[in-house]
Amino acid sequence: MSRTDFTYVESVSPGSGRRDPRAALASDAAALSLDGEWRFNLAAGLHDTTEGFEAPGFDAAAWDTLAVPSMWQMTDLDGAAPYGKPQYTNTYYPFPVDPPRVPDANPTGEYRRTFTLPAEWPATGRTVLRFEGVDSAFAVWVNGTLLGDGKGSRLPTEFDATDHLAAGENTIAVRVHQWSAASYLEDQDMWWLSGIFRPVALVHRPEQGIEDVFAHADYDHATGLGTLRVEVASEIAANARVTVPELGIDIAAGETASVAVEPWTAETPRLYDAVVATDTERVSLRIGFRTVKIEDGLLKVNGKRILLRGVNRHEWDPDTGRTLTVETMRRDLEIMKRHNVNAVRTSHYPPDRRFLDLCDEIGVWVIDECDLETHGFVHHEWRDNPSDVPMWKEAYLDRMARMVERDKNHASVIIWSLGNESHTGANLAAMSQWAKERDPGRPIHYEGDWDSGYTDMYSRMYADHAETDRIGLKSEAPTNDPALDHHRRHEIPFVLCEYAHAMGNGPGGMSEYQRLFEQHERCQGGFIWEWIDHGVRLHTADGREWFAYGGDFDEPIHDGNFVIDGLIFPNREPSPGLVEFKKVVEPVRITVQPGSRAVTVANLRDFADTGDLKYTWAVEDEGVTVAEGELEIRAVAAGESAIVEFPAAVAALGAAGGERWLTVRAVLAKDESWADAGHEIAWGQGQLAAAAPVAAGERTPAVAEDRGYRLGNAAFDALGRLTAIGGLEVEGPRLDLWRAPTDNDLLGWGVPLVNEWRDRNAALYRLEHKVLGIKSTEDGLTVATRVGAGGAAIAMGAVYRWRREGGRLWLTVEVAPEGKWDFPLPRLGVRASVPKGLNEVEWFGGGPGEAYADTRAAARVGRFRSTVAGMQTPYVFPQENGSRIDVRWASLSGEGRTLKVFGAPEFAFTVRPWTSEDLDAARHPHDLVERDRLYVNLDAGLQGVGSAACGPGVLPQHRLLPEAAAFTLGFEVTE
Ligand code: GAL
């Protein structure tokens, strides 16, 4: 290949001049990091590249510098964005599909740097240049000589540089292309970003060193024995010794040792330090003994069925894209473990190798997924899909080999995944076959093969609850190929590699999925889509931070905010969805049973007992702690339960001063690597005493006044609308059926709900209120209205019955649908506005976070305080948020006044400095401008949230169906 030979760019070949793939090893051989500032020039395409840039004598002094590792489009996005901008598409290729050709407009980065080979660099052996990840294709020169080229963005590539290195200063040059033939294999749902985005290093390969290691560390649960056999690829493998000092193991490579060990599991990530050594090299390994098998149709580790409480993790950082620091990787795992996540699918490519070291250490099950997705071909009926076109076979096998070889020594990696959404085909089957031969110790996953002909688990994404139930019962529809039905139905387990799409507010329905996973042995859990919102951090002109999504960079084709669908926000703050997931999948279930005055602790873990936990209890009367203490509960074995009586102190308590609850919490007894002692793992609550009923009192008559009505201290205008309570200006409350649509309302499988809500026949976002009659009587004030939108055929009758009783103002709203309402309502309640100064919020009810009908597991009953700002959930795409559920009372205070609202018995409420219409109109949080009033929604109900942005909608039991209903609220103002 001459310097200007660019044929590799559009070649389906995975590369040339590369070394064979091998394990990522911690070796004592010399190494030199080449990370840091490189000279950089961005060419518009191959036609625009710099002739001779690789020559040592080339003068690049005028070029900019760029950090390696980094992604060039992530440079100075608030400013000049010198290297182009990110672009986001989900499934569509952003270029014309004409494999393997790519556009002439092919941004090409030219990188150069010099480095000095340290004087002590060994003179013998080989010296290898290792790239951990370059997106998407590249060629490499050392001192002007071409070493080769490579593809496979999220996979390592090594070149032998020995013969081209000189003592002292050397020059390395790399040309990186945004688009290449490989782009057809890398159509994952994420930002298109380019560059040398993972570390680069020069590593020495000693003569007679340890080229590769495959540690087979099995665990026999019947005998408690661990078996270790380490294959070493080395010219002198026979001389390599394997030692595990802690286990007294000292064997030759290839030999087998069996000793009693503590097994590795995600719950008990026990690792043993091992060394593999020849005379010239020492490699450190961290060995976890475990055995993964598909047996009796189940995925078993160490002889036991495991339950995956997983997340799909893309690598993402709002400032650097897919270039992550080790601190960020560790932080992800800490947040996961703190939220009871026990599994990661590395969607949809192998992660930075250091992430897997942390998975071994901290303990999560990993599905390691190959860097492969050809989703865009779906728009061409999968015509020419590389998965079934022979010319791509080598590239497929190469990718699989590079993943398996790199990651084969990780205890945490229990399953290999062929890739994602690449339909089916012979090339996928070949990958599977190769991997099974190379590593019989790990089952194969791939979702695109619904018949499961070449996979070891039946994997699906977004199957709804009903189908998941059928699969659990083995009564699902047959396979397309009848010959495969028995295998799929009876021989392999089921996993949802993606479910519960965490886009915006939600996902709803996780509790119901979890019940199915617990009920059906065959359903071994799943992985929430997805871990993090891929928002790009930007700032407004006045310095306020915001997160960009598709379209914010003027991409001609994009998929909007579909990339904002994670359980954590781009800044890694947990979203309510993650808090909900933590509760839904809690590994210990605490049930407080007031009837039998007992507390049950069920250990839902697969291996570990509960010896790492301790328990606290508290009794609260109307949210105020009246007694608390610790509860002794013996360690409960995995799968077992313990029952203890209520603490004696609870029995000794006097009469309840209000609604009384007992809360029992399980917390870490001591520090773990991922959380401190005291961190809460699980909780349970039981009601010990109900609230005393509100005593009926004297009623105050309503009186007509000059320009309205008066009912005690409440004033109404001539249309019967409340204007003030005491001296406090309160506008409304009036019927409100609208919510700013959530992503799940907006996208929706089938017909998005929002289409019905916005349809002219309903137009719930622009309801008008017509007064039909007002009656003021001895009992209070009655205002009859009809609520409907201009042009709409349907309406809602709403009658407001106001009464003043026992010193409190009460409102009963009776609603009656008129016409054909054949869709669920967004919400049913009233909205009022109050003065802005009432900024302090307190409530007794569900909290502390937002909760909706189908996202309410994490809401416990208690007394909570916040501010209006604190009541908003900062979804990257503004939408309905922040509603608190099961609220008995809520108060808004400020400027010396308090408005308290009472439920009869409960309501849901939101308070915001803007309206639902403002939220609906906003595209980013910084579009929201505070008004000079606060808007309060007091709801009898809200439609559940569901997961319809990608997956099933709201389950029937969580739908808010329009029907005749009445609800009551009380109001009190104090100074
Ligand atoms: C799946 C896909 C994911 C993501 C998700 C929707 O089909 O595997 O990568 O696109 O849908 O967010």
UniProtKB/TrEMBL annotation:
It catalyses: Hydrolysis of terminal non-reducing beta-D-galactose residues in beta-D-galactosides. One of its GO terms (molecular function) is beta-galactosidase activity. The keyword Hydrolase applies. Gene3D superfamilies: 2.70.98.10, Galactose-binding domain-like, Glycosidases, Immunoglobulins. Residues 1-21 are annotated as: Disordered. Its EC number is 3.2.1.23. InterPro entries: B-gal_small/dom_5, Bact_Beta-galactosidase, Beta-gal/glucu_dom_sf, Gal_mutarotase_sf_dom, Galactose-bd-like_sf, GH, GH-type_carb-bd, Glyco_hydro_2. PROSITE patterns: GLYCOSYL_HYDROL_F2_1, GLYCOSYL_HYDROL_F2_2. SMART domains: Bgal_small_N (SM01038). It comes from the Bacteria. Residues 710-972 form the Beta galactosidase small chain/ domain. This is Beta-galactosidase. It comes from Glycomyces lechevalierae.
